Structure formats: C-alpha cells, structure tokens
Amino acid sequence: MTTSQLRARLSMPGPMRYANPLIRSTLLRHLLFAVVAGAGLFALTGALGPFRNYQLATVAAYLCATAGLTVLTGLNGQLSLGHGALMATGAYTVALTQNALADTGRVSGGYLLLSLALGVLVTVVAGTVIGAAAARLRGPYLAGVTLAVAVVVPALTTTFRGVFNSEQGLSVYLAPAPESLGLYFPYERWQAWIAIIGALLTLLLLGNLIHSRFGRHLRAVRDDEVAARLAGIHVGRTQVLAFVVSAGCAGLGGGLLAVLAQSVSPGAFSLTLSLYLLMAIVIGGLGSLAGALWGALLLVALPALTSTITDLADPSAAVAQRLDGNLSLAIFGVTLIVVVIAAPGGVQGLLRRVGRFVGARWRVPTGR
Amino acid sequence: MQRIAHRALAIATSAVLVTALAACGSDEGGPAGGNVPGVTDTEILVGTHMPLTGPASAGYSKIAPATKAYFDHVNANGGVHGRKINYKIMDDGYNPATTQQVVRELVLQDKVFAILNGLGTPPHSGVLDFLNNSKVPDLFVASGSRAWNAPTRYPYTFGFNTDYTVEGKILATYIKSNLAGQKVCFFGQGDDFGEDSLAGVEQVLGASTVAVKKTYVTSNTNVAPQLGELKAGGCQVVVLATVPGFTSLAIGTAARLGFKPTWLVSGVGGDYPTLAAQLGENKGLLEGMLGVNYLPSAAASDDQWTALFRKINDERNGGAAFDGNIVYGMAVGYLFVQALLAAGKNLTRQGLIDAIERGGFKGPGLAPLRFSKENHSGYGGMRMIKVEQGKQDYFGPTYETDSAGGPVNEYPEAPPAPPANGIPTS
C-alpha cells in the first residue's frame, strides 16, 4: 500500500478504512483489540511486583466504572453524582453472596463469577429505578437526585447494621488462586487477572454498543433531544437504557473492588468517590473510552503521587499531618481546573491534538 | 488478503511471545534463603497506619510520631542488636478503604518486617486477613477490640490496649460500688468498640439495668438526637465508648441540651489534654469526668516513666504538647523494642512471634500484659482516673479481669522503675 493510498484510507470514516470485511466488522476488530490488549496485560502482570499488580487491578476495577460513566455523561449527556453508591451496591452484593456461598460450603473460585454476575444484576435493577427517575429530570435536578443516592446508600449500611455491619463493613470470603498456578503464585497477580478480564469485557461490550445504532441514539439525544425525537428516537427509553448500562458497569467495578480489598465498608464508597469518578472522566477526556482509561489511571496514580510528593518535600511533622489526607483532593481539584482551561478535551483530547500535530509534520516531507 | 493474514499472524506471534515471556518471568516468593523482609544488618523497617487526618485524628495523630520519637531515641543509642528501627507512618484517615491501600503498599511495596500499632477497629479489621495470609507480624493493634485475640485464626496478630469488655467490666464495677441506685445509660460507637464495651458493662450490672443505649457512626457528626434521647430517658450516669472527637462532641452537645450526667469514658477516648484542646474555653465541662487507663498519667509529676517519656518528647518529638497519646505511643515503642530484644540477633518473623508468645514483658503499664500462645490480647486490667481542677489523675486500686465472666480483682503489683537510659536491656 502506498502512502497516498494509506492516507486516503485513513481519511475514510470509521470501519471503511479496513479493506478486509473481517476487520471491517466492529465486533471482530474490537475482539482482536481485546485479545491483543489482554495478552499484553497478561505479560505485564508477570513482569510486575505484587503491589504494582494490585494497583493495576485497582485501575481495571475503576475503569469499569469510569467507562460506564463516560457512556452516561460523555455520550448521553446525563450527569451522575451517584456512581460511587452504585459501585457500593455491586460491592456489597458480591460480599454478601460470597459469604453466603462460603457458609454453605461452596468455596471454589468459580462461584466468584456467580457473585460478580449477581452484583451486576442487582446494580442494574437499582440503575433502572434511578434511571427511570433521572430520565424525567434535567441538569441540576438530575445532579440532585443522584447526589441523594450517593448520600443515602452508605447511610443504609448503618441503618441495617445486622446485614451490612455498619461502618466496620464486611470481609469478603475469597478462594485462593487455583492450585494449578503453583504454590507460590502471588495472590495479587491472580486478582489482577480477574479485574483485567472484567475491564476488558466491559470495554468490549461498551465499545460495540457505542458503535451501534444505540450509540448513535445516545449521541443524538445528548446533542438535541427535539431533533432526536423528530428522527424517531424514543428519548426517555434511550436515557433510561444509558443509565442501566452505566449502572451495570459501576456494579461490576464495585464488585471487583470488593474482590481486591477482600472487604467492603461504606467509607470506601463515600460521596467523595462519586465526585472523584466524575472528575476522573472529565480530566481523562469526556466522550471516549480512552478518556475513561486515563481517568481510571489518575484515580490510582494521583493519591500515590501525592504521598510521594509529601515524602520528597519532607515537611515538618505538623505540616505533613495537615497535608497527607487533604493534598490528594487539592491536587485533583487543581488538575481539573488546569485541564478544563488548558485542554477542554481532557488528556485524550490533548493526545489526539498532539497526534494530529505530529502527523501533519510527518506528512510534509513524505508528501508528493 | 494475504497482507491481512500476515498481519494477523504477526500479532498472534507477538502475543504468544510476550505470554511465554511472562510465563518464564520471575515467580519468586518461595521459601527465601534467610532473607527476612525489612531486615538488614543495619536496619529494621516497620510500618503503621494511623488517622493523621479525618474524624478520628484528634489526639490519635500524635501517637505514631511519638513512637517514632522513641525509636529515634533508641537508634541514637545504638539501636537494637545494632539495627536501627525505621518507622514508616501512613495516613489512612480512619477510612478502611484507604487502610487497604496503604497497608498493601507497606507490605508489598516497601516490604516492611511488621505492622506495628495499626489504629482503629473498623480500619484494622479490613486488613486482618491480608496481614495474616501474608504472614506479616501484626503487632500491638491500637484498639481494644477482642478480634485481635484469636491465636488460631490470626496467629500473627497481637493486641495492645486492654480490651473493651474488660474496660466495661471495670467501669461497671465502679458504678456498682459508688453510684448505686442511679440510672445508668450507654453511648458508644456503632461497631465492635461499642458492642464489646456494652457487653462488659452489662456483664457486671445486668442487661436490664442499662436504661438507654445509643450508638453513633464516625461519618455523622450530629449526635444531638442520641443525646436528646439519653436526656429524655432521665440518665444520671452515662458510659461513653467513644473516640476523643466524639467524647468532646457528646459532652459539648449534652451541655447545650442542658444535660449534665456523670460521665465514665473509655480509655481510648478519655485523655484530658486532648479533650480540653477540642472543647477550648468549655473545657470546664470535663470537670469530674471519670475514666480508666493502664499507662502512666501524663499529668503525674512524680512518675518516673512520665518523666522519661517527657524528656524524650522534648528531645526527639519537637516538644509536642505532652498528653496521654504521647505516653501511649512511647509505651508501644518500648514494648516493641522489648519484643525485638527477646527475638534475638537472628531476627525472623516467626522468631518475633515466638518471643512475644513467651511473654513476661514488664514496662510502664499498670496492669499485666497477658501474651502467651493461647492469649494474644494486650493489657489485662485498668485503673480509675478522674479529672479534678483541670488535672486528670489516678485513684483507687488497679483492677484486673478477663473478657469472659471472671471476677474483677485488684492487681497489687506496681510497674518497675524504667531503665536509666530509657531503653530495655532484655
């Protein structure tokens, strides 16, 4: 293929770039991408130490939630301040199911799949209820309702102490890594595998979804509800569906977090988490799944970075005490402000711009 | 078409290659040849999780720096068996989710030898399984929950505080003999802390005698409804199983409601300087407040241990305001050095656990430490303490009991004098 042919093909919209009908199929293309990414990540987990694997797993768990929130907020234009609570729903369902299964002696690792599926299911039900209410509301009113969800769900755990054990939370029964992996197989690598499979599956499904007709409906509703309605799109149904899909992803993310921490507590799913999730997708780049990935990375990297900065600066004990817990929030806030001003498209938008710039440069000498 | 096939082949080949590479990657973690995590010839790395910020940080944020100051003192005098103790403090804000992260970082990333004095029942409960599965010594947990005393299930975990049930029994014994006939009520944290404490009180007084029982959660700082109910219930004596922030909140809120019962406060939430700092000009409300403790009083001027810790605090801790938290932090440091010495020069994790299980440690504590193979709880008793004219000091005998139905007995033995340089020798 000559450069001009390539250029012509790259300028074609979407899947038409690819000559082969197999690759032109969105599903197959995404599947191929997922398999390659999976293999790369599998190799990565082997190379990383246990703590890095744990962090990688945490990124994967957050990615499920941020990807779901990206579909809802970035593509459908609905704001949710309650996704932390939806993650809690998934996490507590996984915890309760795992412990109930362990009580009846069903302890093998395979049952984890059942628990995670149930976690997603329960969150989907919760998402349907909230989504139905949300579809009737706009802007600040919608934010208000989802904010209430974020506040109420953790409070439920103290109201129904017998089930949720108040602020102390529940420990989650988890089977050890399969014996076939070897006696000294690091448990964190096993956790990373579970979380990565979950995240890849989520991205695969969402990737296909937003390339489908439903994806176009989502964007149409976001851009102009009246026009969408004129085009025959059922606006309310689209909005509720977007909420349900997004809730399911958050449920899986929460369930995976429960698996990673081997414990759940309301403190892990406070209002701050909901706000962090939203900030993360805005910083990462609203409206693309790649942006959700940057957001998930930031959620894990920023607090760690903060403590490193505090360590390096070596402030006096009193100052360090003030900074330690609060600095990460401040840094997140400042980053958000800087990104919104300097790069409204977020990290992903910035990268795309840089890519285009470099591409343009590269084209000059080779162009004929 | 052929090109696509080639490309697919290339991708598949590279995927297989990286996978194979990963498979032959380092799978360490087997029985390492004498390599103990966190221990070198010159250093022992130990970590902790503490609420340096957040709702429970009041007072508690001073504990870990005090322990570190004590270690600095030991290090300046040659360390333990020639090794200096490096104490890494991580802030978890009393949030169990953050505790998960920071403890994993300490264990997996920094490879600490042990976790020392991790603070708080809800935060520490979440890492109990992780630490014991990873076989990391989980020493002297800063909480009186009975959960730390489970040698068969959690062989690597040891408590420090007198457990909350023992505490409840001793407080109730005081009520029984000095405040008989008064209406007794209870206000506690809605977790093991509150539950264990109430269990102790009810063991001695009987379940039906505690008239009103209320709980709080640390994420909600409005305790007016609960205190309103205590007032409406006509309570004359209130047992508080609260962390310092909520002790001052409860006493302050009660005063606003015009409710002034006799307060009996748990040791972990009853340090006078901490509470007085929070109540500010209203610290007069603390006058007559009763409590229990098992470490030297920060206010005692004639206590040799207090004098020693005060000196180290001035020299190594920037002269931080001296209170019960400093005494507590240094007492933890002293016990850890004793345990290290008992474990011998060839320090291993199992060696340390065995040394602690042999027990026999004597230090600043008024009550006996109960460590043995079957018992991983910390101190086994307490002494009553009271605020009079802005000074909190002990009165009466030290009591000792168990967390089951055993009797509450007097413990006559006084703590030994501290070594001259403040460092244990064996």
Automatic annotation (TrEMBL), chain A:
One Pfam entry name: BPD_transp_2
Gene Ontology CC annotation, any one: plasma membrane
Spans traversing the lipid bilayer: 27-48, 54-72, 79-98, 110-134, 141-164, 190-210, 240-261, 267-286, 293-309, 329-351
Topology of the protein relative to the lipid bilayer: Multi-pass membrane protein
Keywords: Cell membrane, Membrane, Transmembrane, Transmembrane helix
InterPro entries tied to this protein: ABC_transp_permease, LivM-like
Chief location: membrane
Protein location: Cell membrane
Domain of life per record: Bacteria
Identification of the protein by name: Branched-chain amino acid transport system permease protein
Originating species: Micromonospora polyrhachis
From TrEMBL, chain B:
Every Leucine-binding protein domain range: 44-390
Keyword Glycoprotein appears in the UniProt entry: no
Keyword Magnesium part of the UniProt annotation: no
InterPro entries on file: Leu-bd, Peripla_BP_I
Signal peptide (UniProt feature, chain positions): 1-22
A Pfam family reported for this protein in Swiss-Prot or TrEMBL: Peripla_BP_6
Disordered: annotated segments: 394-426
Biased composition (Pro residues): 413-426
Keywords: Signal
Similarity comment: Belongs to the leucine-binding protein family.
Protein name in the entry: ABC-type branched-subunit amino acid transport system substrate-binding protein
Organism: Micromonospora polyrhachis
